């Protein structure tokens, strides 16, 4: 089943991928540095983009910088290919770069994402671009940027552990079901962006290249293929990826991450895969809605 | 065996807040003290007996002279010792029973007495057991051992002080008015403690206003005369 | 045995003011040294220089670690100083709020240094934190409360627990009883005295409270106008002060 659309004709008057070549070169330099120092936040000169901050300006700039004419692009938002943001960004790149787009994880060479990692494992050569609202994992704990920079430099991460300690002391468990901090390559503390903790283990030793762009905060960071990524935890409170204890109402998956969908005004609800491509690739249940 | 030999001790006080007047208190004092003996300081009130005791203990600095003390087997001039050496000397060799207990808030009497032993490495239980035995011998009932001495009477505080001074069995012991606020029964215990200390080879320098006590324990008298001339 | 921390020839100027003028000081293992003097005498500047929080204009500060290696504090990198502050040293501030994380629970505050030192066992961290709360005479049942709920004296005791939990070798204390009620001060002083003696800590204590110095310190250093004017055994400096300024300082204290 191929979902890849044919290559469209790009709009005239735009440089390939929207950004000018000098800007892309600057971003690529930052990306190279980020790949060399896994998990380390590299500042870059984020540009104004034709969409508001918070809609993925950082991810778009990274995608623009790594995109080539033969790439096949997939964009997901909350795991879905058909949400507004995903549709707009996909259309944006097909217009300004004329690249082929797809909803299939397996067929994409570049996947830009917000809030999820696809269920289908990445393979070597694929690039996953994360949109990041706040790259600094210590942001809520240490308001001074100079100080948190120093904490990273000295790998002084007791503070982050204090946050997890407080979660357990107050709630009996770690309260970060999203954006659970990770240690990258045993060195840098990193925010995985607001993906569910369920997805954290997918970052570990991933065959694909993971790039992170934060437009408003002007930071880029990266996890190269096959890099050690550990979710922070305690020996006696090990990290647990949580998932709703249901099967997908459409495909019956008991492994995938589920969204809860309200179906009517009477409190009816069901659980379905958040990764629409994964769900569609599986044989549907016979009594599926 | 000579335990302490002081030669030519001088002490005067310069009162800078009173226009720098100098008051000479000690002039050319010599003392020789041997193991197992007790030397009593004698002389009129104000002659400088307590000042001499404080100089020997390092509480006051000497202006001149030397104080050689047998410490860890060698004669050390403690008049020239620095603060750290002096702490070590006080811990291991030189004990002092002052007239008044400097009360440490909230610390039980038992631990005040045990503290000098603890400082010398005696295990807690053993130090406490010895402290309790001494306090009991000085007629302090066990019910008081756990209380801080802040609220005790003068006589009770003095007995805590004495127990603390005798407990650590320093080779050289300075005792200032040990029986001043004690009744006859407790004074007798103090006499016995001093005699036992001497028999064990401890050398003692004391100030005793109670003459019968002095007769009992002192082997020799050392007369201290007031310095009459200006410094 | 040699000095834990040794400083020589320290000079520090703030404009025309000589905060430190040729200061030398040393502290040995297990020794409690009080630096006394009036406000502006340079005692707090000295503490900050010795703890590497302030660079001196001239002089040397040498710290000897547990392995016997000597570190120059004035030349140490930020990273090296933080390592020292995290492992070998502790700092007790006058104002507990400067040291505590007010939005983090009491247990989290005590546990932070353990976690910074690499402890990743939640149960163990809580056990040690509870033990330390007890040592500073706080109810371990309150370990999940915010320090905001605590009185000034309790906050200060919490700061002490947080500082001592990793067994530092050298603790700097800047007016640890300042700003507290007199009765609270007495209890805190006594607590510090007991802990210091039990743990055999070396402590550099800055205070203008002579009674506190007498209770805690083995040795006193008297500072005035950025210079050390007198130093020695605590009881000798206080009972037989030599320098006119020390005599003034001692005579100004109400007998207690």
Summarize the structure.
The complex is a heterotrimer of chains A (289), B (231) and C (256). Chain A is α/β, with parallel strands linked by helices.
Mind explaining what this structure looks like?
The complex is a heterotrimer of chains A (289), B (231) and C (256). Chain A is of the alpha/beta class and 289 residues long. Chain A has two domains: 21-137 and 179-231, Rossmann fold; 243-284. Helix content of chain A is 25%, strand content 17%. In chain A, β8 (209-214) and β9 (219-223) form a beta hairpin. The longest helix of chain A has 16 residues, at 21-36. Chain A is globular. Chain A starts with 20 loop residues before the first helix and ends in a 9-residue tail after the last helix. The mean pLDDT of chain A is 92. Chain B is α/β, with parallel strands linked by helices and 231 residues long. Chain B is globular. The model of chain B has no long low-confidence stretch (mean pLDDT 92). In chain C, α4 (106-116) crosses α5 and α5 packs across α6 (152-164). The chains are: A alpha/beta (289), B alpha/beta (231), C alpha/beta (256). The B-C interface holds B 13-17, 54, 58-61, 82-84, 86-87, 104-107 and C 28, 31, 186-187, 189-190, 193-194, 215, 218-219, 231-233, 235-236, 239-240, 242-244, 247-248, 251.
Backbone structural class of chain C:
alpha/beta
**Distance between the amino and carboxyl termini of chain C:** 37 Å
Number of helical elements of chain C: 10
Mean pLDDT of chain C: 92
Show unreliable segments of chain C.
none
Calculate the terminal CA-CA distance of chain B, rounded to whole Å. 35 Å
Oligomer: heterotrimer
Please report the total strand number of chain B as a whole number: 9
How are the strands of the biggest sheet of chain B laid out side by side?
A: 6-7-8-3-9
| Rg of chain B (CA only) | 18 Å
| Largest sheet composition of chain C | 6 strands, mixed
Write down the secondary-structure element order of chain B.
Answer: EEEHEEHEHHHHEHEHE
Largest interface: A-C, 19 and 24 residues
Shape of chain B: globular
Chain-wise SSE layout:
The complex is a heterotrimer of chains A (289), B (231) and C (256).
Chain A: H1 21-36, E1 42-43, H2 57-66, E2 72-77, H3 84-96, E3 100-101, E4 110-114, E5 127-131, H4 145-153, H5 158-171, E6 182-184, E7 188-190, H6 200-203, E8 209-214, E9 219-223, E10 229-231, E11 258-262, E12 269-273, H7 276-280
Parallel strand pairs in A: 2-3, 2-4, 4-5, 5-8
Antiparallel strand pairs in A: 1-9, 6-7, 6-10, 8-9, 11-12
Chain B: E1 2-15, E2 21-34, E3 38-42, H1 49-57, E4 64-71, E5 74-77, H2 83-92, E6 94-97, H3 109-119, H4 124-137, H5 142-145, H6 154-167, E7 172-176, H7 184-199, E8 203-207, H8 211-217, E9 220-223
Helix pairs in contact in B: 3-4, 3-6, 4-6
Chain C: E1 5-14, E2 17-27, E3 32-36, H1 43-50, E4 58-64, E5 70-72, H2 78-87, E6 89-92, H3 96-99, H4 106-116, H5 122-135, H6 152-164, E7 170-174, H7 182-199, E8 202-207, H8 210-216, E9 219-224, E10 227-233, H9 234-239, H10 244-251
Helix pairs in contact in C: 4-5, 4-6, 5-6, 6-7
């Amino acid at each position: 089943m191929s979902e890849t659309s044919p290559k469209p004709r790009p709009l005239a008057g735009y440089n390939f991928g929207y950004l000018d070549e000098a800007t892309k070169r600057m971003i690529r330099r930052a990306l190279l540095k980020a790949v060399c120092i896994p998990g380390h936040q590299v500042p870059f000169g984020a540009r104004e983009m034709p969409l508001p901050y918070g809609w993925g300006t950082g991810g778009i700039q990274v995608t623009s910088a790594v995109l080539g004419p033969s790439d096949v692009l997939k964009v997901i938002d909350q795991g879905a290919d058909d949400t507004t943001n995903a549709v707009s960004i996909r259309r944006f790149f097909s217009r300004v770069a004329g690249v082929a787009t797809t909803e299939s994880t397996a067929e994409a060479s570049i996947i830009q994402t917000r809030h999820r990692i696809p269920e289908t494992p990445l393979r070597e050569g694929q690039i996953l671009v994360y949109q990041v609202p706040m790259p600094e994992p210590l942001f809520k704990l240490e308001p001074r940027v100079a100080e948190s920079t120093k904490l990273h430099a000295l790998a002084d991460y007791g503070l982050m552990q204090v946050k997890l300690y407080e979660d357990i002391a107050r709630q009996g468990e770690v309260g970060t079901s999203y954006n659970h901090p990770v240690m990258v390559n045993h060195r840098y503390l990193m925010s995985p962006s607001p993906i569910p903790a369920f997805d954290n283990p997918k970052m570990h030793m991933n065959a694909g290249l993971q790039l992170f762009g934060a437009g408003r905060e002007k930071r880029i960071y990266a996890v190269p293929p096959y890099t050690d990524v550990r979710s922070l935890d305690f020996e006696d409170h090990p990290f647990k990826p949580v998932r709703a204890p249901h099967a997908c109402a459409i495909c019956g998956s008991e492994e995938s991450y589920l969204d809860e969908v309200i179906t009517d005004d009477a409190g009816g609800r069901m659980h379905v895969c958040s990764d629409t491509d994964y769900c569609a690739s599986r044989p549907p249940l016979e009594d599926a809605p | 065996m000579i335990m302490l030999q002081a030669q030519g001790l001088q002490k005067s006080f310069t009162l800078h807040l009173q226009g720098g007047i100098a008051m000479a208190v000690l002039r050319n004092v010599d003392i020789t003290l041997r193991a197992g003996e007790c030397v009593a300081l004698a002389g009129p009130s104000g002659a400088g007996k307590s000042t001499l005791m404080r100089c020997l203990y390092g509480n006051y600095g000497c202006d001149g002279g030397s104080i050689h003390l047998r410490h860890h087997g060698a004669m050390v001039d403690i008049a020239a010792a620095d603060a750290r050496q002096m702490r070590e000397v006080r811990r291991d060799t030189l004990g002092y029973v002052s007239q008044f207990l400097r009360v440490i808030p909230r610390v039980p009497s038992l631990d005040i007495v045990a503290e000098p032993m603890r400082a010398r490495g005696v295990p807690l239980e053993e130090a406490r057991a010895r402290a309790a035995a001494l306090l009991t011998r000085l007629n302090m009932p066990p019910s008081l051992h756990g209380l801080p001495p802040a609220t005790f009477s003068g006589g009770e505080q003095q007995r805590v002080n004495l127990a603390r001074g005798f407990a650590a069995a320093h080779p050289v012991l300075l005792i200032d008015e040990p029986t001043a606020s004690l009744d006859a029964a407790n004074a007798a215990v103090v006499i016995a403690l001093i005699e036992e200390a001497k028999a064990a080879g401890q050398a003692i320098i004391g100030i005793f206003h109670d003459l019968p006590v002095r007769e009992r324990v002192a082997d020799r008298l050392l007369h201290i005369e007031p310095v009459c001339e200006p410094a | 045995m040699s000095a834990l921390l040794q400083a020589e020839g320290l000079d520090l100027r703030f404009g025309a003011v000589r905060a430190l003028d040729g200061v030398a000081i040393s502290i040995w293992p297990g020794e409690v040294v009080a630096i006394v003097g009036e406000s502006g005498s340079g005692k707090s500047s000295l503490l900050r220089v010795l703890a590497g929080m302030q660079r001196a204009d001239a002089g040397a500060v040498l710290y000897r670690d547990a392995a016997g290696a000597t570190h120059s504090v004035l030349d140490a990198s930020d990273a090296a100083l933080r390592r020292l502050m995290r492992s070998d040293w502790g700092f007790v501030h006058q104002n507990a709020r400067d040291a505590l994380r007010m939005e983090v629970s009491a247990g989290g505050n005590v546990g932070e240094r353990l976690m910074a030192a690499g402890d990743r066992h939640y149960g163990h961290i809580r056990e040690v934190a509870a033990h330390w709360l007890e040592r500073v005479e706080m109810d371990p049942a309150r370990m999940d409360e915010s320090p905001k709920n605590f009185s000034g004296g309790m906050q200060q005791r919490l700061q002490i627990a947080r500082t001592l939990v990793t067994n530092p070798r050298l603790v700097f204390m800047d007016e640890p009883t300042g700003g507290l009620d007199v009765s609270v001060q007495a209890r805190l002083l006594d607590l510090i005295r007991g802990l210091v003696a039990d743990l055999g800590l070396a402590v550099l204590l800055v205070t203008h409270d002579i009674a506190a110095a007498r209770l805690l310190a083995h040795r006193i250093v008297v500072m005035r106008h950025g210079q050390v004017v007198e130093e020695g055994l605590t009881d000798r400096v206080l009972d037989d002060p030599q320098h006119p300024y020390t005599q003034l300082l001692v005579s100004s204290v109400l007998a207690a």
